């Protein structure tokens, strides 16, 4: 097999349409079809199932897809590294994503250590929803991401557990709950709470309070994330939930949620089989080697 065949197959796997795949790689449809057929002959079976207007991957095609994607990624990394060498560039880019559900307070220590070990480090840090960051990892737009480990990740992504992220209650300063050291979930019963999307870990915690613990919440208001929820809490129109360590606006206090502690796991994720430069490799090794305690570097 050759890289052209692999590139054509990956385009077809994305488009699931021979005409659009051929347009994507700028060849005629017969040329793309012949290349796919040669690849199928070499791999010993059909990769694509053709049923009239329906095109889909066979079981062999689904099995080969992550391996062939990794091969294409490795070849692209080789070309980019060679191009950098010809230009005399020796940068070490590191593109990290952090879900907006995490505060990442221990991350600066790890990044400082990486910068000390890799002087050519060129860092990019992105915040976003877990689904957006997952897609960026798959597309090669991110090298690593810290994600909430609430559900399965795509098979092409590695997953290493790091720590458990706790939940705090955001309370206006004048509220009686502000004087408590920790707030039991029963104290939220019947209170107006700023709701988040159920796909957000904090939104999932709100749903669990109702479904698993019988807490009756009144989610009159909605916010995109904990920071926005904090602004609504500061306005005095409800309580909110947020990750431990979140920045709270003036007039708001954060108190740990107790009974139950609705912590969710945090995982480090990278694309399986994708080559790592010095910076990415150092970051992954350090993050996995650190002993984390609630997002803080303990050792």
UniProtKB/TrEMBL annotation:
A Pfam family hit: HTH_1
UniProt keyword list: DNA-binding, Transcription, Transcription regulation
Domain spans labelled HTH lysR-type: 1-58
Transmembrane segments: none
Membership in a protein family: Belongs to the LysR transcriptional regulatory family.
Record-given protein name: LysR family transcriptional regulator
Species whose genome carries this gene: Pararoseomonas baculiformis
């Amino acid at each position: 097999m050759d890289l052209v065949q692999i590139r054509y197959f990956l385009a077809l796997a994305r488009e699931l349409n021979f005409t659009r795949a051929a347009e994507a790689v700028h060849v005629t449809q017969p040329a793309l079809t012949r290349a796919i057929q040669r690849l199928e002959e070499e791999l010993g079976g059909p990769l694509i199932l053709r049923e009239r207007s329906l095109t889909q991957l066979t079981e062999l095609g689904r099995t080969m897809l992550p391996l062939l994607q990794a091969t294409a990624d490795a070849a692209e990394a080789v070309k980019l590294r060679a191009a950098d060498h010809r230009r005399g560039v020796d940068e070490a880019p590191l593109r990290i994503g952090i879900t907006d559900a995490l505060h990442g307070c221990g991350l600066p220590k790890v990044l400082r250590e990486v910068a000390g070990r890799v002087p050519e480090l060129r860092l990019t840090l992105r915040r976003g929803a877990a689904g957006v960051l997952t897609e960026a990892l798959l597309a090669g737009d991110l090298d690593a991401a810290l994600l909430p480990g609430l559900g399965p990740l795509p098979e092409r992504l590695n997953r290493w557990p790091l720590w458990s992220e706790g939940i705090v209650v955001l309370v206006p300063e004048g509220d009686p709950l502000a004087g408590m050291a920790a707030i039991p979930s029963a104290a939220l019963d019947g209170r107006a709470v700023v709701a988040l999307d159920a796909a957000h870990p904090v939104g999932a915690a709100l749903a669990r309070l109702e479904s698993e613990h019988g807490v009756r919440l009144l989610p009159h208001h909605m916010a995109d994330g904990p920071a926005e929820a904090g602004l609504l809490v500061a306005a005095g129109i409800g309580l909110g939930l947020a990750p431990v360590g979140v920045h709270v606006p003036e007039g708001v206090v954060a108190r740990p949620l107790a009974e139950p502690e609705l912590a969710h796991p945090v995982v480090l994720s990278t694309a399986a089989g994708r080559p790592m430069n010095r910076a990415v490799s150092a970051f992954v090794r350090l993050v996995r080697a650190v002993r984390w305690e609630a997002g803080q570097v303990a050792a």
